[in-house]
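hey can u check if this looks right to u? its 168 residues, i copy pasted from the old doc so theres a chance i mangled smth
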Amino acid sequence: MSKLTRLMNDKIKSNQFRLSNIDKALYPTQNQIISYKQGQLSNIIQKFNNVNLVQPNYSKLGLLNQKLYQFSPQASIQSHYQQLLALSNRKNQSIKVRIETSKLEMRACVGQLDALSPLKSLERGFAVALTNKQERIKSKQQVLQGDIIQTRVSDGKITSQVLRVDDL
């Protein structure tokens, strides 16, 4: 055999050895896989046992539940809703009182207007005398004997002629 062939054979053996080592590293044996999975299973069992050892503290759990309810948005919304209902009822009651007060004030004003109304005065028996220029007669100096005047009463007008003008 030649020297070159020997070198090539050595090189091939060396590469085969390396490949087998790489193969062992990349593809573990059945025993290695089983050993690894048993370790994982032991960790899971230990964690499960630790969880089962913890006993719930019901009094603390109750307090935490109360705090959760106290700070929950539902409790806050319910509280604000109740406040809105109360304010709405107060507002409605206030509006009713204001309307009744306004009605009473309006009735008083209507009474005053009726008392001051010229038409109401005419209904009570008073009359308004007007010159032929439709001016209200306030003094005897506004008319002369023979003038035509109109007298307004509650249900119409009376046209008259002045026969004389006298002093009181």
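The chain has a mean pLDDT of 83.
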